[in-house]
Amino acid sequence: MLLLTTACKKALDINQDPNNPSLDQGNPRLVFPAAAMATAGMEGGDIAILGGIWGEYVTQSALANQYKFIDAYDVKSTDLNAQYSGLFTGGLKNFQFVIEKARDAQDWNFYLMGEVMRAYTAGLLVDLYDKIPYSEALGGTSNLNPHFENGDEIYADLIAGIDSAMTKDFTASSNSAPGTSDIIFNGDMDKWKRFANTMELKLYLRMVNVNPTEAGAGIQKLYTNGAEFLETDAGIFGFTDAPGQDNPLYEQNIRQLNTPNNLRASTTFVSWLQANNDPRIVSYFGTNAPNSIHQGDYLGTDPAYQSAAVFVELPTDPVIFISAAESYFLQAEARERYFSGDQAQALYNQGVLAAFASVSQDGSSFINGAYKYPTAGTLEEKIQAIATQKWASFPYGVHFIEGFFEKQRTGYPLTSPVYSTDPSYVPGEFVVSKNSVLPPGALPRRLAYPDVEVSRNANTPELLPITTPVWWAKP
Amino acid sequence: MSNPTFILTHSVLEGEELCVCKLYSLIKHETMRKRLLLFAVLLLFGVWSFSQNSRKITGQVKDESGPVSFATITETNTSNSVTADANGNFTITISGNQITVTAVDHTAQTITVSGSVANITMVRGGQLQEVVVTALGQTRAKAKVGYASSTFNSETINRTAPVSPLDALQGKIAGADISHIGGPGASTKVVLRGYGVIAGGTNQPLYVVDGVPLSDARFGASDNTDFGNSAGDINPADIETITVLKGTAASSLYGSSAKNGAIMITTKRGRAGKLKVEYNGSANFSKVGKLPDFQKTFGQGWSGTFILSENGSWGPKFDGQERLWGSVVDNSQLLKPYSFIDDNIRDFYNTGTEYNNTIALSGGSETTSFYFSYGNVTSNGVIPSNSDNLQRNSFALRTNSKFNKFTINSSFNYINRKMNAPYTGQGASDGSSTFENILQIPVDIKISDFLDYKNKFFNVDNYFTPYAENPYYPLFENRNQQNSDRFFGNLDANYKFTNELSAQLRVGGDFTNARTFAYKAVNAPSPGSWNAGNNPESAPRAPDVGSVTEINNYLGVINGDFILKYNKNLNSDLTLEALAGYNYNQQSQKGVSASITNLVIPGFYNLSNSSVKPTATDATILRRLMGVYAQAVLGYKNQLYLTLNARNDWSSTLPIDNNNFFYPGANLSWIASQTFDLTRTAISLLKFRAAYGKTGSDAPPYNVYPILTIGNVNLPFGSITFPFNNVSAFGIANTLGNQHLQPVITTEAELGTEIRFWKNRLGFDVAVYDKRTDGQIFTVPISPSTGYTGLVENLGLVSNKGIEVSADGKPVVTKDFNWSITYTFSKNWNKVENLTGGPDKVILSSVYDVEMDAFPGKTVTGIYAPIPQFTPDGKIIVNPATGIPLADPTKSYYGDAAYDYMMGMVNTFTYKNWGLNFSLDYRKGGVMYSGTADLLLFTGNSYVTTYNDRRPFIIPNSVVQTGVDGSGHATYAENTTPIDELHYDSYWYPTSNLAQSYPDRIIDRSFLKLRDVSLFYNFPKKWASKISATNLNLAVYGRNFLLWTPQSNIYIDPEASNLGNDLTSQLGEFRTAPVSVTFGVQLRATF
């Protein structure tokens, strides 16, 4: 009888999934690339489309429909849920696994990689939504309703995480060489340290409107410790022209969508490029004289709209987390704010040149021309110059969202009092979408919590209008 | 007990118990038999003497319409039997004095023979004597069962020559929602007593053939393709009866898989006698059914402007003038009048043809009989080309052998199926969908002209619009094909130890290998061509990158039962029938698929033909279940029957330390008309039923332990996949398994009554039930901030309460003319009782912004979609810039996707050798989303898009927000912004008018169908005999013609769906293939 019971039990013990590895088979080397790609896929997918439109680089085609809701600022809880889920479940959860396993194994290389990417990914969420679940998050069944925490506290913890990782012993024998599983730097830990420092710099600068003291102290400390910053792009390269292997924006918006020409040139961006004779217009829109659509005027019937230039996307475009140009611009701003502008112009120029170079253009004539650094200007004018150049650089590597964020933080480019069809319109100034559903004059400043969180987490705070600035934003 | 001979014999015994000479039948015990037999005879017939010697009896079997062919005449309670000939004549040698006569579709009869001649008149149908097939394939007298069941015979099933057996029963069973959802070979949806399962399982009934569960898989199914459900593979011509057990109480001995009821199929068997040849052949012709109603006023264009390259009818009004249209090719252009084209879509479709032939041979000796059949279906549906095509060859061989106390029956079935399924739903980057293409042709452009899809004006380069493709292109250039081989069968051995005790060992297997091969052609408009952007809108069409997909599915089910049966008369009043058994069930599945996109060599469809790496996946599933069960039926004085049953299962899919579950059931049947003497009343039968049943159902496999999944990143369209640049990656799965998983428990209580009047001239059967499905295993969506999106949990209680009424009557019964009617009515109330511990709602199915949601306290099939924002006093708030309403962030209830109630009616008239039969199927209420409507509203082809003659209009009763008053309340002013002519079209599409688009897309589901009509003629014997036939029958019939739908449905047959054949399909359809109407002729002959 006992034998029979045992035999039966054995016959029934067949429920270990043969189609998927068990959790114990996981390790940082296996999980890190999945996590990094999840972050890249979200940033370079829906978030890039949102950033592209709200950053006024591109606008919805008048011949198609796909992104009208974004261009009309009619983004509701029910929209754009996938990117929120993807950043938490594909990104943060897996980075946490990498961090924990690496810490257990004292593998400080993966530990640093995990901390930096966690900061990048969580930062993206905070910047889009303000408060998010953080210390109570990622616990699975241990907490199905994690509380939301203030963005500044999350920022502080992210910085502390990077700080702690940077103090580890990178010569320890327990470290492993990440090699190709590091799909960002191919195991170059020097670049990871630079990425870590630049990430901290970016987080500190985000705080300047609300926590200037903390921001200043943090940046001073970075420099005191001799921090080195990125001089190359941090991001995922290596995309190829094949389904599932290509740039996520290309995959989502071109390859797999039946209408590949939704994202057309916005007059906001095009007018600025044209006003400055900026050759990047060819890189971005394929021609020197693209037809453009006034932001959000997708119901417009201007015949030229039909041939408005489609934003140039290539399957091999990278997804950038922080570009070399952005690193230089961040440093220039830090120098300007905390070191009396020491080296700021040089860093700004390096930023402009790097931004041009990233799209295979030469900006050398511009740094002494149209984009000359206003050395004699006020701090605000300098910040404006830096922010404007940053804005113009973000289409590279589908990093549009950063243009939207930095507009929130710095206020630049300025918002035009008139629509871009008005003769008094200043090229490059943000306009309110023609078909805005928001109260007159209002621009979107954040996303509302997505339905996937609202409907499933009892502790989700009350939804605020998308016109409410996030905690670090310039009011 | 799948041996039909045995079944019939059994039925005689059981039926007899309720006959006048009931005392006799109580006696199955040999030793008591003679004594009591004598007693009975004395009692009932007075003094009687009989001989124990053998004697020869001759006679003829007849019924009200003449001789009954091939009746079985058995010396009562012996194995001595003969088969009557085609004219009903028989000769039998008996040693006793009673014979029992059984025949298909007739009430069994036992008579006492005094002389040497016995002419027997049988009665068609039969009520009390009716036998039903119950769980485990055991046959029991219907009288003894305390739950509802419906049985259909071969004649009913095959009346209009369906390809799939369940299609014949649409609208004929109270409480069964049966719909064929597509073209040839497509799935049939069968839902008994409402949707109970919202996750972790299906709502499909269990299909059982001769006592052995049959798999009902849908291989290769998606919203784009439907290769049918495999229960539809069985050749209807091989079926003797189908018994539908709707309730859990009826099917609980089957355990897990029968929680949604069971469809018990009994196949035809050979009988002793000479070789019998049956031929059953039909030819059908089908036409496309309901099609959308178009507006006839406006032609090609957009925003009121005539634009040559537009895919919609938003252009100017028709003027009937000759206009150039389409692309400019070689400096030339086509000319046509600018006017509406009638029957445009209808002319796109062809006449479908279907040939359905079966030949069956049967016969045998007294100890061994056989049945062999070959069936062939060749069907090509109404869609031009071979893209909706089914070829099925089925072979069946069944044997019954008897050797003393040992009987062994076998059944072997082989089915080869080859099917092409049309590609429905939404096109993708690899190629387009025909149905989307058709709907995007302006109403002034003749669709059928595009048949010449290689013509220079209609080809890939120069088709008139870059927004869609020539609808014929995917039909002829792309393919969705599935070839499958299936074997199922069983061996069933019985040994009778004594008259009271017997054992049965039955082993069944069902093995399918299905090979799906799909491809789409690669194409790109040539540079400089119309569709490369050289059109008035400079709009290029994205190339179809093409694809090849190979899927290989294997499914093997092994099911074994060992059953001990014990029948005993406990005393003169009490009888006992008991059984106990052990069940072993193993399901193993393997699915391997590989696909490529971006084809390099046009027209070459092989996995090697790609510029990119193939993607390959495989999935293996193995699950086992073991169960022990027991059942006892206590009978009291042939009027009260109590059945008790219980089962305990051990399942591999539950946590190993807590993997067993127990569930009992009971039912009671009381034949009140046996208790009370009602012979002086009009009542011929009065029966009351009560049943309670519980069924445990295990979990889907692999929901217990935590796993990693491949690190692919899913995007809203497409995905980024690993390996990426030779790097592999896995991440923690987004669904959390559950180490405390419990089985799902379905309980059902059922009460019913049957009452019949005037010797069966009129009868009613009423059932009420309350079914509760609790602890549903589903992946509860959890907030992504937990790190996971789903948690497998037991939660959620769904109840289905309902009433089912069947009535049948014979208003006219004469020698030559007969009229019979059956009527069914059913109504089901569905409710999500709770989702305790789970989310506020569960989204069960969604398309765009419309969802089918389960909310606690509401129906499981509620349809929710956006509505406008309203002011507190009920005015619509619009966008001041556009005049278009703003959408409320919360979706609103649009209605229940389930029918309010269903009714069916079948009328049969016979006059001499002629017969006319028709059935109506009426399903009232419910709403559905139509993706066909959606696209026609987008393109301005829909009839409703001529509102206000397409002139500017202001949304009635609308306001704009002007600001906020001192107390923070919004202030409003009357809206004066019209939706102007240029933007009239944007009013009709959700991306520009989310608030008000859905009332036009969510339509009434009601319909009334003339489900089938058949006119048949039985050739007189003397004619039939001229071709040596004993029976010759010719019928002409129609299926599904005459469809009535309410005003709001100007789009589609509401039965059509490409969203599956279960709960998700209840949402509606998304640009699916149409359902056809069919006319046919059928010839049946017996030799």
The ordered string of helix (H) and strand (E) elements of chain A is HHHEHHHEEHHHEHEHHEHHHHHH
The number of distinct helices of chain A, counting runs of at least 4 residues, comes to 18
Based on secondary structure, the structural category of chain A is mainly alpha
Radius of gyration of chain A: 23 Å
| Largest sheet report of chain A | 2 strands, antiparallel
Report the largest inter-chain contact.
A-B, 99 and 95 residues
- As a percent range, the share of helical residues of chain A equals 40-55%
Spans of chain B of at least 5 consecutive residues whose pLDDT stays below 50 are 1-52
Range of strand content of chain B: over 45%
* Share of helix of chain B, binned: under 10%
- Please tell me what the overall shape of chain A is: globular
Per DSSP E runs of 2 or more residues, the count of β-strands of chain B stands at 59
How far is it from the N-terminal to the C-terminal residue of chain B, by CA?
Answer: 29 Å
Taking all Cα atoms into account, the compactness measure Rg of chain B is 32 Å
The count of strands of chain A amounts to 6
